[in-house]
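Readers of this paper often ask what the protein records in our data store actually look like. The remainder of this section carries one protein's record, kept here as part of the documentation.

:::
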Amino acid sequence: MSLVVKHKRLLAWVEDVARLTQPDRIVWCDGSRAEYERAIQTMVDEKLAVPLNPDKRPGSYLVRSDPSDVARTEKRTFIASQTPEEAGPTNNWAEPEALKKTMRGLFRGCMRGRTMYVVPFRMGPAGSSLALIGVQITDSPYVVANMHLMARVSSGVLEALGEDGEFIPCLHSVGKPLAPGEKDNGQWPCAPLEQRYIAHFPEERTIWSYGSGYGGNALLSKKCLALRIASVIARDEGWLAEHMLILSVTTPQGAKRYMAAAFPSACGKTNLAMLTPALPGWKVELVGEDIAWVRFGADGRLYATNPETGFFGVAPGTSAKSNPNAMKTIEKNTIFTNVALTEDGDVWWEGIGYEAPAGRIIDWKGKEWDRTGTAAHPNARFTAPARQCPVIAPEWEDPDGVPISAILFGGRRPSTIPLVCQARDWNHGVFLGSIVGSEVTAATLDQKAGTVRRDPFAMLPFCGYHMGDYFRHWIDIAAQSSADKLPKIFMVNWFRKTKEGKWLWPGYGENGRVLKWIVERCDGQGKAVETPIGLMPTVEAIDRPPGVSEADLAELLSIDREGWKAEVESIKEHYARFGAKLPQELKAQLADLEARLATA
């Protein structure tokens, strides 16, 4: 390589890993377009990637993973903190040295026959006070190509490190060494499930991942660094690393307000981030659709930064109706994983908005689809550059971030939770974030249908330490500013249904009507009434969409007292998980809710 690396600790680490894993060669990545194209071509040559029709999807490719390697492997994801208590009840804990011993045994010789790539990357815009540098070692060209889209990969990162700069070491292997002369030849490389480990060492700020080549298990910049490790750094340094979108809302008068929002998976986070409001004169622009790093500015307000440069979005259900801006974003220069391939060289998935085209279709497993079952995997993905999004905000890479006026929490709840509710104060807002959940469907095997799966702050799979301490951090961080400068906090729910199963709210672009009321509340306007659960809009305060009757809107904004009393009991069970670590402030909020429901 032409760049001279002066960082002795980095050089020593790369040499140590090479001795352990025994790759055929080492390549230091520079983030160039030529490098990206070489990684893609390597996959094409190995029959791991299929070029799509350039007239349909220019610069785009389809990849199919092994059927066993298709999602987050939460049971094989570990927080290897010094004690189990530090990891908490919601994480899988492993003793650090014992886990390292096991994984070193797996890493030994695991890159034989492969290239070892050294990928320097920055999370966050250059010059940001919250930017972090990572270096990922990987033997996967799929990871290299995706990292080019998702993070700021460049030789300039190595220059910024200098001789002794701080970086987060991220070690990854697909866990499939090749014998002399052996090739992948179209077989997705990965290790058996029982040999997969996604390990985080919070005290050392280190990530090791073995055996998976897909998603957040392999793209270590994403959930591993940007959330699990960054959440620990944020706790120690007094900021927030959150599983949140960031958007701007511009009023017809030209006033711009910024919001962050946390939703569990399958609750419309990306759709909201790229919203096209149905209300005339209103505009929504995207700052980030998945992760927000948030810190206080000199003026005492919270500022949010999107540390990523791309989208790793779920394809099934994405359509011109649900998210037209996402569909425009992925028209070119996109890597699709586990979607279906049409006869004319395009992609297709369930929920794309039109029927599967005629002709031969190859499903996500590489077989001809017989038009029964699903052609695309339910968690099939697209990786695309954020700069291609037609509603990307001009300030999305501002190193100072954007000032947050409102924080939204929401889940998929067909009953009880109203369309929108405002927290009375910061601690009440933390309470609302701590009880986020979605109702379990019949398709979920490990919980009874109709019960609520809690996902506090949408961070349950991603918090790198004890969630009780995480709640405490949210409460304590408010002390860095004054109440009038803190964002207002809201709970939203687009998923209310009638007893007959009919949607009460149309969602999608009509959600802009709820954002309008939230903006008004942030500006000291917008009609609201006090209720046992918080501040609720009056019926006339929400612009009613076509097709929604006054009775429907009243139902959406009603308080189901019996439902909320059952909710209180469910929250008590949820809180019991955190034992003595549950902050007293949240216990007080729950007691207050119970008392208000009893006396109202």
About this structure: The chain is about 25% helix and 20% strand. The two ends are 71 Å apart (CA to CA).
